[in-house]
Design goal:
Layout (H helix, E strand, L loop, with lengths): L1 H26 L1 H5 L7 H28 L6 H11 L9 H12 L5 H26 L12 H14 L2 H15 L9 H29 L7 H17 L9 H10 L5 H41 L1
Helix pairs in contact: 3-4, 3-6, 3-9, 3-12, 4-5, 4-12, 5-6, 6-7, 6-9, 6-10, 9-10, 9-12, 10-11, 11-12
Amino acid sequence: MKKKLIQGIKIIFFLLVIYFLGRYFIANWEDIKNIDWHIDSFSLITSFLLYFAYIITLASLWHFITKLNNCHIGHFDAVIAYLYSIPGKYIPGKVFMLAARCPAYEKENKPIRKITVCFLLENACTLLGAAFLFLISLFFFPNDLLEKYKYWTILLMIAFFICINPKIINFFLGMIGKIAKKDMLIPVTYPDMLKTVLLFILNWLVAGSGFYMLVHAIYPVPVSQWLYVGGIYGLSTIIGILALFAPSGLGVREGILTAGLCLIMPEEYAISISLISRLWQTAAEIILVAGAFAVNQIVKLKNQKAAE
């Protein structure tokens, strides 16, 4: 009965993902249909490879966080669980992403409370990594609008490294714990937290580079705008994550991308790229999830044959 219930939940989960993605693309079909598809294939392929690297590394960083919180499982199983959870972001709220990861950890008797804390920490590090990339990109802003604010940007970067202190993070987790009536604190030292966030920042440089290559595949953006384009992508992701009402930031992220890209290219290209970026990201994630499923099934069959 329990297996049937889980299977039913998985089907409902899948149908919800299809619904929200389908609704988004149908609403924007006219804009997508009118896009000029003169694309540089080398840059496009490179953008996909970089995004694949970003997601796989993100899954490994998730495993690293669970190790810091003493609730980890095997690296392979952790990566598969992470990839399986990706479709959950296309449903409003982030709870489905967490729910999709839990079975793999419950199977090995890992406390769900600890997994929840790791999930919160992972999202915080994702936001911090994207925010730092955006702060760096401000130095490459395409006009002089932010020239007088560059010192404020430096102060924000200093404040950034102060705020990742586990004592500060645990203060806020403690407040959440009081509401949930659970211990939500993380046993992480400042050096470990610093290392984790730096790894997320480096991984965001990979993601930003992937997006830059996607943009370059459609519009000839100079290399000097690489960090600016990557920073806009980071900012759009931050707003998308914080917009809990929008599944995977659908519509919200594209609006931020369009506004930022309009500063370095004609508006029609900015709008087109913001829409293509969603197709690019979704296609890459579908390929990774399908690949994870195929690899997991092959490993299961091998284990079954070895057991026999």
